[in-house]
Amino acid sequence: MAGGTSKYQIAEQVVFNQQEDTRDRRGDITLLINGMPVIHIELKASGVDVFEAAHQIKKYIQERKFQGFMSLVQVFWAITPEDALYFANPGTAERMNSAFFFHWEGRDNHIIRDWREIIDGESRILSIPEAHRMIGCYAVADKEKDTRYKRRQI
User: Fold this and answer.
1) What distance in Å separates the CA atoms of residue 97 and residue 76, rounded to the nearest whole number?
2) N or C: which end of the chain has fewer CB within 10 A?
3) How far is CA 33 from CA 8, 9, 25, 126, in A?
4) How far apart are CA 73 and CA 112, in angstroms?
5) Could you tell me the residue ranges of all domains in the chain?
6) What phi, psi does 95 have (nearest 5°)?
7) Rounded distance, CA 51 to CA 18, Å?
8) Concatenated DSSP letters for 67-80?
9) Do residues 146 and 103 touch, judged by C-beta distance below 8 A?
10) By CB neighbour count within 10 A (0-12 exposed, 13-18 middle, 19+ buried), where does 77 fall?
11) What's the pLDDT tens digit per position in 61-113?
12) Distance between CA 17 and CA 105 in Å, rounded?
């Protein structure tokens, strides 16, 4: 990154490349850093299970919507007003595994489900050093032994 001179952009209702054998699709929100798509967010309405948003992402991956330029997306967020999950881009739908879906956690390790608490400061969310610190913390987590997380088929 360009050390403070990066440009952050938000694209809403991104039209994905249409494939001959798939429907025309629009993603909800894509965050771009220096013109490159880095984070994609799928939103669902109140009362809808957050895993429905994750399933929508899986469908887009199956339909090859995250290929080419959109393959640069590194992180997906599935968000409802009541819950939020994030996970790394698995590359293929077959590699999606809910054991690697994470809830945002506060400093005292309590799960934060309200997305307004997660985006509690743009500088913290978009801080590259903070992102690297987070990745380091979560990369060593052993979700198989952590009973707070249950596997769910999407």
Assistant:
1) 13
2) N
3) 5, 6, 22, 9
4) 23
5) 8-16+24-139
6) -90, -5
7) 25
8) SGGGGG--EEEEE-
9) no
10) buried
11) 998 888 888 889 999 999 999 999 999 999 999 999 999 999 988 888 889 88
12) 34
- Please report, as a single letter, which amino acid is at residue 122: E
84 Cα distance to chain centroid = 9
Is the pLDDT at 138 greater than 70? The verdict is no
Q: Sort 27 into a burial class: Cβ within 10 Å, 0-12 / 13-18 / 19+.
A: buried
- pLDDT on residue 120: 66
pLDDT tens column, 7-20: 888 888 887 776 66
pLDDT band for position 127 (cuts 50, 70, 90): low
Q: Mean pLDDT, to the nearest integer, of 35-44?
A: 93
Alpha-carbon distance 77 to 12, whole Å? Answer: 14
- Find the DSSP H helices in the chain: 50-62, 115-118, 122-125, 128-139
- CATH class assigned to 8-16+24-139: alpha beta
**Residue 152 DSSP code:** -
Rg of the chain taking only CA atoms, in angstroms? 16
